[in-house]
């Protein structure tokens, strides 16, 4: 790693922190870890501010990595990230929540750079990824919220009509002929082209009824992260967000704010039936009449977050899901209870909808939500 001549203790600490950061979700490669070790050699290790900025410059690839980096820094070094000076000299305090009492920093923890500390720090983040959201403490939820804000979202794509030049693929006869004529009829290397790819719309339907109460806030944060995902070319994803309960509420406008807290506050004001009853069949019918048939659901990947507890007519729900399936590219049903051992989809609503669903997934933890992102991308 280009660190000959350095003492083993700083090197062990740097490698350990890089592993913690990788476990938290930031893809830290060998080259980045090498830059970090070399950067530490140029700063004063007793100054946490210098250590913080050396790591942030060497290990973060973009703004989306910073929240996760701040949490990992606090977890590993036991110090909150230094405040960032905003324009005009005003200091903005970083909003950081502790992972758990066991992972909060202390003077002893800062001096502990051995393998046990590495195991605890990396283990906390990994354990939290698999914890049921409904069982988290307030501090753990705050930590999870920051991890959700740092999710990397790769939207699904679909073939476009337009073709673009490519190094491989079918021969582009027009371009090849034009180049041949420009060369006076001399043979030229054939040009190739491929169909361009366009983002596929993602529609998120979130059940906010009382039975989904422990998960609704996290699912809205997840929806906010998906709505602010970026395509490979830097464009915004095409995402629509609705809440389901006894009424249908469109939350796409509320999700446009870049700040998750502002977006969730706006969503909370917009939803009139938060923690109320469940009439999925009727609300899905409203969605199809107002939006689905008019284009929002056509060719889209639709994700329904619900436990399937239906107080209305279950057969109506089955009919509406069947109609939605004919319009959409794919339907993924996310049930937080599906991850429990021995779970069976015997609820009336779940049983009626399941025959028309492409995938049934659990959505009770960060790990299952990350798996959902992969399923949506590959649907």
Automatic annotation (TrEMBL):
Residues 199-370 form the VWFA domain. It holds the Pfam family VWA_CoxE. Signal peptide: none annotated. Residues 158-195 are annotated as: Disordered. SMART domains: VWA. Coiled coil: none annotated. PANTHER family: BLL5662 PROTEIN, BLL5662 PROTEIN-RELATED. This is VWA domain-containing protein.
């Amino acid at each position: 790693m280009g660190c000959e001549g350095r003492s083993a203790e700083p090197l062990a600490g740097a490698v350990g922190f890089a592993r913690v950061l990788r476990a938290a979700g930031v893809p830290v490669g060998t080259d980045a870890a090498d830059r970090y070790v070399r950067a530490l050699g140029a700063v004063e290790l007793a100054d946490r501010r210098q250590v913080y900025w050396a790591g942030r410059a060497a290990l973060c690839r973009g703004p989306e990595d910073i929240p996760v980096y701040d949490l990992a820094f606090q977890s590993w070094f036991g110090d909150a990230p230094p405040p960032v000076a905003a324009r005009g000299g005003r200091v903005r305090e970083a909003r950081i929540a502790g992972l758990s009492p066991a992972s909060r920093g202390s003077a002893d923890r800062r001096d502990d750079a051995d393998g046990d500390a590495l195991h605890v720090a990396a283990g906390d983040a990994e354990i939290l990824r698999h914890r049921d959201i409904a069982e988290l403490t307030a501090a753990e939820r705050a930590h999870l919220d920051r991890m959700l804000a740092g999710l990397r979202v790769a939207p699904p794509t679909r073939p476009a009509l337009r073709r673009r030049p490519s190094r491989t693929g079918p021969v582009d006869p027009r371009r090849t002929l034009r180049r041949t004529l420009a060369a006076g009829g001399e043979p030229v290397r054939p040009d190739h082209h491929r169909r361009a790819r366009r983002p596929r719309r993602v529609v998120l339907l979130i059940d906010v009824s009382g039975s989904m109460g422990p998960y609704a806030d996290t699912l809205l944060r997840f929806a906010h992260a998906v709505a602010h995902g970026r395509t490979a070319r830097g464009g915004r994803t095409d995402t629509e967000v609705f809440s389901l309960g006894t009424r249908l509420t469109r939350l796409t406008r509320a999700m446009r704010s870049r700040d998750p807290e502002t977006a969730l506050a706006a969503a909370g004001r917009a939803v009139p039936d938060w923690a109320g009853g469940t009439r999925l069949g009727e609300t899905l019918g409203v969605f199809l009449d107002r939006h689905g048939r008019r284009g929002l659901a056509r060719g889209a990947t639709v994700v329904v977050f619900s436990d399937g507890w239906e107080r209305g007519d279950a057969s109506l729900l089955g009919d509406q899901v069947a109609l939605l399936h004919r319009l959409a590219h794919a339907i993924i049903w996310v049930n937080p209870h599906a991850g429990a051992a021995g779970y069976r989809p015997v609820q009336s609503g779940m049983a009626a909808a399941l025959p028309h669903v492409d995938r049934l997934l659990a959505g009770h933890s960060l790990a299952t939500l990350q798996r959902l992102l992969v399923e949506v991308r590959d649907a």
